[in-house]
Design goal:
Pfam families: Aminotran_1_2. The chain has 394 residues and is α/β, with parallel strands linked by helices. It has 12 helices and 13 strands. The longest helix is centred in the C-terminal third of the chain and has 27 residues, at 288-314.
């Protein structure tokens, strides 16, 4: 086994030392080793990829579609994405200059932040939220500024945004994830419009991670790009809506003036996505089968959500109803205090149910648990029985 020369370690990117531990994967890994554990941890859909998407990937392979694709993605996929965005959200993007296909939303987040920030900049991030936004911002040499939305029902209000801007007038970007991971909370049309009005008076670039946009239950998703298209980069993809997490196909859309440098950053990172995966995603975004598959999954998720919310409330958990994604962000019963890491650890070890501590998601997450219902209803029912026994025996 090679051993690194000690002095070399002093030459690494110094921003690594500024990173806060993310913890989600590590917690899941430890919990997975517990015999008989029921996992409600990761945002991993339990559905299989729809047949139309599988067949498209297989046909791509059979047709020897195995060469370098254009950096922004195949023309067919970009055209399908343009159709998808117009059909679902009323947004119009030029497939030639305003769409870039990325290797999952993770790469899209990195490419967007790397393009729009410089070392020393500040990035506003509404929290609780997926910790990767802050980690990437830090690694790039910028500073994440958390805006705690806990007291506002986990929604960023114009007033709170204006206060953050007053405190951080040099902020360059705002990261907005909705429907939210971890809360499942999303924004009404009026809330989006009001927030867009506050952003419009600034030079902020909004990085709108809307990867869960197809999983909105009692309303239609409204993209903030509808109101401020010239200031918004939208991230979306096939991972959550079509259970295609392993295919790693997402995309960024925005005005061509921004998308030129974003696309260049993306191409320098990965060159391009794979042809078979893009063929599958083309079928996901362009066909009725893709749309119907999402609707079927969404109906199942909503049934699971309704059962889980009712069951956990009976056990003393406080829950803001999640109207999107497939997570519940549950506040611990009062008798357990605010130590969500201890509760989640004890629940995994003694109750045999794994969930993610809410404090891993930044300001406003302490005292909460993120509970994923991207698993079968039978698993969820069994988990609830175990949680019931755990909280009542404690």
């Amino acid at each position: 086994m090679p051993t690194v020369k000690p002095a070399i370690m002093n030459n690494l990117n110094k921003n690594f030392a500024r990173l806060k531990p993310v913890g989600i994967r590590e917690f899941d890994y430890r919990a997975s080793a517990i015999p008989g554990i029921i996992k409600l941890t990761l945002g991993e859909p339990d559905f299989n990829v729809p047949d139309a998407m599988k067949e498209a990937a297989i046909n791509s392979i059979k047709d020897n579609d195995s060469h370098y694709a254009p950096g922004n993605g195949t023309a067919a996929l970009r055209k399908a994405i343009a159709h998808f965005m117009a059909d679902r959200y009323g947004l119009n993007y030029d497939p030639a200059s305003e769409i870039a296909v990325t290797i999952g939303a993770t790469e899209g987040i990195y490419a967007s932040l790397a393009t729009v920030t410089n070392p020393g900049d500040e990035v506003l991030i509404a929290t609780p939220t997926f910790p990767l936004y802050g980690a990437i911002t830090t690694l790039l040499g910028s500073s994440p500024v958390e805006i705690n939305t806990c007291d506002d029902g986990f929604v960023l209000t114009p007033a709170r945004l204006k206060q953050a801007l007053a405190d951080h007038p040099l902020a360059k970007a705002l990261v907005l994830n909705y429907p939210s991971n971890p809360t499942g909370v999303t924004y009404t049309r009026d809330q989006v419009k009001a927030l867009a009005g506050a952003v419009k008076d600034t030079n902020l670039i909004v990085i709108a991670d809307e990867i869960y946009a197809e999983l909105v239950y009692n309303d239609q998703h409204t993209s903030i790009a509808e109101f401020i298209p010239g200031q918004t980069l939208v991230l979306n993809g096939a991972s959550k809506s079509h259970a295609m997490t392993g295919y790693r196909i997402s995309f960024i859309t925005g005005p061509k003036e921004l998308m030129g440098p974003v696309s260049a950053t993306h191409a320098m990172m990965v060159t391009a996505a794979s042809d078979p995966a893009m063929a599958a995603a083309t079928a996901a975004f362009a066909t009725d089968e893709g749309k119907q598959a999402t609707q079927k999954m969404k109906a199942a998720y909503q049934k699971r959500r309704d059962f889980l919310v009712a069951a956990l409330r009976k056990l003393g958990f406080e829950i803001t109803i999640p109207n999107g994604a497939f997570y519940i962000f549950a506040k611990l019963p009062a008798k357990f205090g605010e130590d969500d890491v201890k509760f989640a650890t004890d629940l995994a070890q003694n109750g045999k149910v794994a969930v993610i501590p809410g404090s891993y998601f930044g300001a406003g997450g302490q005292g909460h648990l993120r509970i994923s219902y991207a698993t079968s209803l039978d698993n969820i029912k069994a988990a609830v029985e175990r949680i019931k026994h755990f909280v009542e025996e404690d």
